[in-house]
Amino acid sequence: MGPSSLWLLLLLSPRDTRITVTPVPQTWEEAFDYCKENHRGLLFMRGKVEQTEVETLLNVTGVTGRFWIGLRQSRLMGFWFWTTIDKVVHYHNWKDNRPPELPLSHHCGAIEAGGKWRDLNCKMKLPALCIEDMYPT
To answer: Contact 69/129 with Cβ under 8 angstroms?
Structure first.
């Protein structure tokens, strides 16, 4: 990736959404702040349809590596939630087919180019996938 953001277009129900890959790797907290200040927030997926659309988009564009998404784990209760929409994760696509559990888990979620989610150390520096509505109301 160059110095500017890479834009990817994606249809996420119910409206057109643009996904932006951040130009500079950041910690999860930095990515959260950047995406919230400059876009709508970090990418979230509410179900299999959106997951498949994201996987297809990553495959078609040839984007590789790991990317921060809006997944965060409650350090107190251990459940995973989407920070952008403040909702508990019901659909999941974890690398090992089950959510990482306390106390051995890291508390920040990323997506790999193949579409699988994984927990990673929040201090790692990765590019992030930010979202924004193309036609805000």
So the answer is: yes
CA angle 114, 69, 110 (to 5 degrees): 50
> How far is it, in rounded angstroms, from Cα 127 to Cα 22?
5
d(CA 111, CA 54): 10
Q: pLDDT tens for residues 81-116?
A: 999 999 999 999 999 898 988 887 899 999 998 899
SS3 category, 128: strand
pLDDT category at 133 given cuts 50, 70, 90 is confident
pLDDT of residue 93: 95
Within a 10 A sphere around the Cβ of 43, how many other Cβ atoms? 27
| The two three-digit tokens of residue 5, written as one number | 């953001």
What pLDDT, on the 0 to 100 scale, is given for residue 1? 36
Q: Are 126 and 68 in contact (CB under 8 A)?
A: yes
SS3 content of the chain, % helix, strand, coil (to 5): 20, 35, 45
CA triple 36-38-44, angle to 5 deg: 45
